[in-house]
Structure to design on (1105 residues):
């Protein structure tokens, strides 16, 4: 879980930074999207890098999900009888890992259909992500879903990053606070970065 | 005196003297080497064929079980706790003595031997004590190799401290949890042998009787505490490492379930019980807070290094301590013992506390406490320095009492802590029943009438790791025994007796709980056979105990059955043995009309009020033989010779 | 104090259990939680009812025998063992829920008593240093840096009570196992078995049916001895190191 999580986290950082190009206008982000398809050329063919990255990410998502499923099954089996006295345990971020993960999985499917395959996108202009983004965020329910998903991403990373460090044995008593701070910063930066786009569309800054 | 028709328990008879025949003659330094050389060995290939039962998994039992299994014996081990790691050795705080002389401060095996004999007030056997001092150095090596995290200095070497008023720094420690760390070391070694299949471990299983076949100990009858199943386990030898009997007092620093049943049942089957009246009282325990008190908590004696002990001068002074002016306080230890002040030995400090409380000057609930005041130390050293030294103890005190000892003086009171008496054993640690060995606190061997601080852990581990294995080896090599058939009448009869007794308890269906009886017995013993004893009180107790026992069999109430986990039944069953043991303790205390070590007879004191030994009359260990419940026992004396350490009277005035 | 107690009663390992309500009165704030239960039990016995079974022994917080979940918290509201929890932390009229440790690896024996022998088997799988009696070199043959000795001690303080498992939403035994792995693996004496120890102990832990670690930190919060959460990271580090060979 830790390794696949970190792979996806790295991707999210790049993705978020790329998204910010939307503030520099249609040409900037559309050009960036076109450039992504040319990475590695001429050593790699057109879109090869993108497909390599996509297959890597797909593997990460699948493995992450499968591990999460196996871990959850094992964890539920380890506590067959529940406590009668219910009590809030751990932080919100920690408690929402499982459901947050499910929300994110659903979101990814929608997100790909919306902005990659353009299946459910109202504009559906191939090669024009700027126009597609503006069109997509014109729908209130998409905005709501997106905001919820991005908050889930933040919470997921907040616990997930520190947790990955713990699992990989990178944590110790001296580093503990620094790691938690890094996790919070990453979570906040990614959530804010991702949310800035729909907010900008909704407020008319990007149109 | 006996033979009379109205003979009572008091009419004990004097039997043949008993003597240790195992310690070789010759210079004391060479006896242990000589004994090991004389010992016969069992061929390593044959050891698996020998089964040894070990009862208890504390320092002595855990160490013995692991070591015997390492040597190749088949060990079958028992503890009543849910895990061998919980034995009460775990609660020892202070440390473990060893004559390593790492400090180069003049320590030696000879000095540790000398201190222990003298500390025991000349009621221990010299050969055993010398061996203990010799073996002490190996214990530290063994424990370090196991990964016991002793305190270390910055150079990476082991730290030691001075403990219990000795002049040398020979106590190794692991913060205030030395017992825990040593026990976990033994437990881990034992766990390795359990996993390897060399030790068959039976947790939650309590020994309820000893199987004696053809005059030899050949096994035990034990009850599975979860299912209630009672069955026999047979072996070539039986080792009792079941600890002391301090819980006979109900309130003590012992764990709640520590009990005397294993050693008492062995006593009933022929093992002599030695010096039962030698019990140790620790002066710095947290006083009881009310009737509900279930046990007492010890606080390290080191507190007396900086705390000043006092009570109000006036009787019944109930003002808060801060409102009692200096001139109305009585720093009684400093007043009576100006040379040693608050650092007088345990028994003297304890008795002095009792005296001032008896005078009506005690403080706290029920007037059963004295102040241990750190105000001066805080003024002199600063709060930080006091916190650095005693922070964890202050915290523990505050958790229990909800009083902040930085602002309000602590209240302390003595409590039963350790029992020097136990099953009589020879130099081989064998009892008077051949094939039955007793180690650790369960035997009487090394501490005489008083144990020095940090010596209990030393003795438990010495017996378990280093002394028992070679002597047991010798016994097994010399006595090849046929297997005991599973249908042997001794097995079926003993099992039936055990079962009958439990059924009798269940059948009474009276109106009093086991704890209510135990509390009453404990209070009686504390009053009459506690810190100070006199003839009249002991006679009162000896009259009261049989009546209490009779009441028990009329009024005890134990709900549930014997075929399940039944903690009330366990308690009641242990009480039956406590009644008999209490009786023997009082008789032993009555017959020993001298004061020595932890046994203080008010009739026998020096003009200064100190314990006065009477060596000519009582320079022996008293080994008692059981003759029946409530029947007068037989006293066998073991004369004690002091060739190396010559008896002197203690003086701390 | 007068209190209402709701206590898990279960006659035996295979019996069905339920929360049963009792009222106790005259409870002193100076009583420990176990002394409060003693008071209840004395009443129950006198009435001819079976007293509530619970494990306990030293009653000074070191043997690790006691342990119950009090109002949803392992060992109750204070960071200490149940035997060292005092009634002054409750208020007159409170209702207190008392349950056994809940974990598949800790089956209930009776009432509040559970079987924690899984812990013993984890220790037996590798939680030791192989040093047969008599084989030890002089204690000063190998100096141990003070820092390593202190870390070892900090982890050796574990009392094996099982609160970590009880508190973990996944019933995981990672903190218990890591405490022993770290205690022995930081010492030079423990180095020769360093890799096999962590491998075997983790394998044994998994085989007992404990849950996996999702780093919720509940274990370290409940631990009465303050075994720190980064111990788990340290064990993971040892495990990965062992896996790399």
């Amino acid at each position: 879980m830790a390794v696949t999580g970190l792979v996806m986290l790295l991707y999210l950082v790049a993705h978020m930074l790329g998204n910010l190009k939307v503030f520099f206008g249609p040409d900037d982000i559309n050009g960036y999207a076109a450039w992504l398809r040319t990475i590695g050329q001429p050593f790699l063919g057109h879109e090869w890098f993108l497909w390599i990255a996509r297959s890597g990410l797909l593997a990460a998502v699948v493995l992450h999900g499968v591990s999460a499923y196996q871990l959850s099954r094992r964890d539920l089996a380890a506590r067959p009888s529940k406590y009668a006295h219910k009590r809030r345990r751990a932080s919100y971020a920690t408690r929402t890992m499982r459901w947050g993960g499910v929300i994110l999985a659903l979101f990814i499917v929608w997100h790909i259909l919306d902005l990659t395959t353009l299946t459910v996108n109202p504009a559906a202009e191939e090669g024009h992500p700027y126009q597609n983004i503006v069109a997509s965020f014109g729908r209130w329910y998409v905005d709501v879903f997106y905001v919820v998903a991005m908050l889930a991403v933040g919470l997921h990373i907040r616990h997930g990053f520190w947790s990955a460090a713990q699992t990989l044995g990178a944590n110790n008593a001296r580093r503990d606070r620094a790691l938690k701070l890094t996790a919070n910063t990453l979570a906040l930066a990614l959530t804010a970065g991702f949310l800035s786009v729909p907010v900008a569309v909704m407020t008319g800054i990007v149109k | 005196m006996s033979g009379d028709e109205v003979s009572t328990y008091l009419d004990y008879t004097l039997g043949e003297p008993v003597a240790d025949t195992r310690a070789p003659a010759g210079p004391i330094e060479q006896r242990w080497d000589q004994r090991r050389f004389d010992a016969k060995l069992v061929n390593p290939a044959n050891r698996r064929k020998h089964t040894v039962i070990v009862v208890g998994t504390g320092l002595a039992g855990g160490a013995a079980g692991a070591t015997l299994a390492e040597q190749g014996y088949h060990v079958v081990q028992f503890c009543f706790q849910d895990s061998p790691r919980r034995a009460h050795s775990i609660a020892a705080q202070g440390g473990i003595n060893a004559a390593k002389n790492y400090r180069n401060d003049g320590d030696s095996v000879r000095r540790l031997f000398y201190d222990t004999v003298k500390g025991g007030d000349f009621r221990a056997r010299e050969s055993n004590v010398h061996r203990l001092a010799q073996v002490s150095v190996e214990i530290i090596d063994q424990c370090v190799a196991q990964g016991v995290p002793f305190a270390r200095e910055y150079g990476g070497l082991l730290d030691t401290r001075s403990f219990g008023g000795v002049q040398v720094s020979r106590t190794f420690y692991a913060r205030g949890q030395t017992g825990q760390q040593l026990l976990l070391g033994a437990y881990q070694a034992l766990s390795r042998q359990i996993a390897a299949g060399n030790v068959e471990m039976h947790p939650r299983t309590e020994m309820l009787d000893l199987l004696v076949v053809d005059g030899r100990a050949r096994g035990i009858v034990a009850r599975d505490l979860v299912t209630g199943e009672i069955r026999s386990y047979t072996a070539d030898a039986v080792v009792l490492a079941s600890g002391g009997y301090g819980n006979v007092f109900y309130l003590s620093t012992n764990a709640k379930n520590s009990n005397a049943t294993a050693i008492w049942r062995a006593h009933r089957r022929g093992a002599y019980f030695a010096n039962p009246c030698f019990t140790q009282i620790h002066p710095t325990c947290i006083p009881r807070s009310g009737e509900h008190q279930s046990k007492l908590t010890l606080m390290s004696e080191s507190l007396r290094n900086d705390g000043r002990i006092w009570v109000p001068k006036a009787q019944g002074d109930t003002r808060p301590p801060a409102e009692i002016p200096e001139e109305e306080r009585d720093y009684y230890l400093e007043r009576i013992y100006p040379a040693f002040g608050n650092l007088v030995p345990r028994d003297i400090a304890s008795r002095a506390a009792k005296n001032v409380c008896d005078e009506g000057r005690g403080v706290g609930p029920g007037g059963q406490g004295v102040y241990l005041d750190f105000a001066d130390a805080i003024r002199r050293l600063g709060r930080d320095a006091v916190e650095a030294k005693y922070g964890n103890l202050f915290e523990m005190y505050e958790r229990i009492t909800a009083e902040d000892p930085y602002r309000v003086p602590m209240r302390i009171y003595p409590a039963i802590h350790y029992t020097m008496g136990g099953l009589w054993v020879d130099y081989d640690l064998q009892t008077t029943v051949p094939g039955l060995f007793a180690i650790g606190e369960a035997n009487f061997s090394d501490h005489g009438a008083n144990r020095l601080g940090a010596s209990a852990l030393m003795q438990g581990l010495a017996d378990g790791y280093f002394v028992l294995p070679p002597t047991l080896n010798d016994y097994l090599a010399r006595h090849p025994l046929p297997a005991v058939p599973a249908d042997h009448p001794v097995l079926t009869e003993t099992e039936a007796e055990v079962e009958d007794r439990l059924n009798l308890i269940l059948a009474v269906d009276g109106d009093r709980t086991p704890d209510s009886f135990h509390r009453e017995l404990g209070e009686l013993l504390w009053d009459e056979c506690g810190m100070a004893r006199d003839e009249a009180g002991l006679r009162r107790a000896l009259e009261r105990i049989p009546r209490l026992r009779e009441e028990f069999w009329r009024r005890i109430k134990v709900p549930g059955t014997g075929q399940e986990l039944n903690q009330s039944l366990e308690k009641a069953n242990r009480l039956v043995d406590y009644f008999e043991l209490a009786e023997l303790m009082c008789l032993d205390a009555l017959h020993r009309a001298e004061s020595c070590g932890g046994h203080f007879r008010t009739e026998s004191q020096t003009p200064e009020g100190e314990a006065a030994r009477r060596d000519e009359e009582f320079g022996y260990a008293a080994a008692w033989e059981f003759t029946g419940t409530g029947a007068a026992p037989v006293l066998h004396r073991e004369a004690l010779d002091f060739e190396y350490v010559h008896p002197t009277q203690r003086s701390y005035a | 104090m007068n209190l209402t107690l709701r206590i898990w009663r279960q006659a035996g390992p295979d019996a069905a259990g339920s929360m049963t309500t009792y009222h106790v009165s005259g409870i002193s704030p100076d009583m420990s939680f176990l002394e409060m239960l003693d008071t209840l039990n004395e009443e129950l016995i006198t009435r001819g009812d079976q007293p509530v079974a619970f494990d306990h022994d030293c009653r000074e917080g070191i043997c690790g025998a006691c342990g119950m979940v009090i109002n949803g918290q392992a060992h109750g509201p204070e960071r200490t063992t149940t035997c060292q929890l005092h009634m002054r932390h409750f208020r007159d009229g409170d209702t207190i829920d008392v349950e056994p440790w809940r974990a598949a690896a800790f089956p209930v024996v009776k009432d509040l008593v559970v079987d924690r022998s899984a812990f013993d088997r984890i220790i037996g799988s590798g939680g030791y240093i192989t040093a047969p009696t008599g084989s030890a070199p002089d204690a000063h043959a190998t100096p141990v840096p003070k820092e390593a000795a202190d870390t070892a001690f900090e982890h050796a303080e574990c009392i094996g009570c099982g609160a970590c498992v009880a508190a973990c939403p996944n019933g995981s035994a990672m903190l218990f196992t890591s405490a022993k792995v770290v205690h022995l693996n930081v010492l030079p004496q423990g180095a020769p078995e360093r890799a096999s120890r962590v491998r075997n102990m983790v394998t044994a832990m998994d085989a007992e049916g404990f849950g996996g670690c999702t780093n919720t930190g509940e274990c370290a919060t409940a631990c009465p001895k303050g075994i720190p959460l980064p111990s788990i990271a340290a064990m993971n580090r040892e495990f990965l190191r062992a896996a790399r060979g």
